């Protein structure tokens, strides 16, 4: 039997490019080479696509020394995005004979997107793979887009009857042209401390905690660098003086139409909250798996995580994050392409649930192929 040809797609133009490289390195190290023929597919920060040796160079050297778009165009391993979209074969079809860089991509059986943030996790890459007719792990266009947009995500959570923090959404144009109105809107609806986030983003990039008006103004300006829509949430567990902390709990979801939930884990941040530095650069944060919870609380959180996954029409995988204050449990957000680094919670949660890293990769590939087979029976014309 031929090995399945698996493309591992990483890098990208987002602010989470470096995190993607770390995730891809872990996946490429753990994937079973006896079962799969692995094709690295890298995307530089300039948006140029690389295969084979150039992709490995991107992974090994990092973005600082990676070939840029102009240099990559002169190496045989370069692959313009248009070639990927036009060259990939429909599911089940394998071209033969050619062995150049374009064929590296055009004969893939399945793609593992190890991309985080915009242009990878937000439905854009999923749309390209849909048009190319190739199976891929994770949520489709809708689930990916919804899972990326914290404003729309929260609307779906609310429609599903799931508890969410009090929040207000503000457009960047509103903040830039009518700042006093935007501040009044926020401060009338919410109380400090507040968390200010770009609506579309991940890995806590651009997220700040504000304890007063001055910090709120700074936080809005920072978040506006990363998206046109800003979400401001009332802190959970802040207490009357705003110094308290909510517990940060996470659940990993795996599956398509019948998703399963992992054990519940807890993050104890080394900083005031679990920001980008605490996630990837600091050794001060601690993961507690499983979290110290009553069976009732654990079961309730796992059930809500599955409901959140279904509310956003997700598939494949996701990590669902919660905040807990006393007995109050609040759904924070869903992440449809969670980190796969050595210290990432998603693989750790499944390992603690009895599914080790290599088996988790196998399961994601199987789910991608199952979803492609299910979609293949859909008619698109009379």
Structure characterization notes:
- The protein is of the alpha+beta class.
- It folds into 3 domains: 4-136, Rossmann fold, CATH 3.40.50; 147-163 and 244-374, ATP-grasp fold, B domain (D-amino Acid Aminotransferase, Chain A, domain 1); 167-234, ATP-grasp fold, A domain (Dna Ligase, domain 1, 2-Layer Sandwich), CATH 3.30.1490.
- Helix content is 38%, strand content 21%.
- The chain is built from 15 helices and 13 strands.
- It has helices at residues 17-30, 52-61, 69-72, 81-87, 101-106, 124-132, 141-148, 150-159, 172-177, 179-189, 213-223, 276-281, 295-311, 345-352, 357-376, and strands at 4-11, 36-43, 49-51, 110-114, 167-171, 194-198, 208-210, 229-234, 247-255, 260-268, 286-288, 316-325, 328-335.
- The protein has a 5-stranded antiparallel β-sheet with strand order 11-10-9-12-13.
- Helix 4 crosses helix 6 (124-132).
- It is globular, with a radius of gyration of 21 Å.
- It starts with a strand and ends in a 6-residue tail after the last helix.
- The relative contact order is 0.13.
- Residues 67-103 have low confidence and may be disordered.
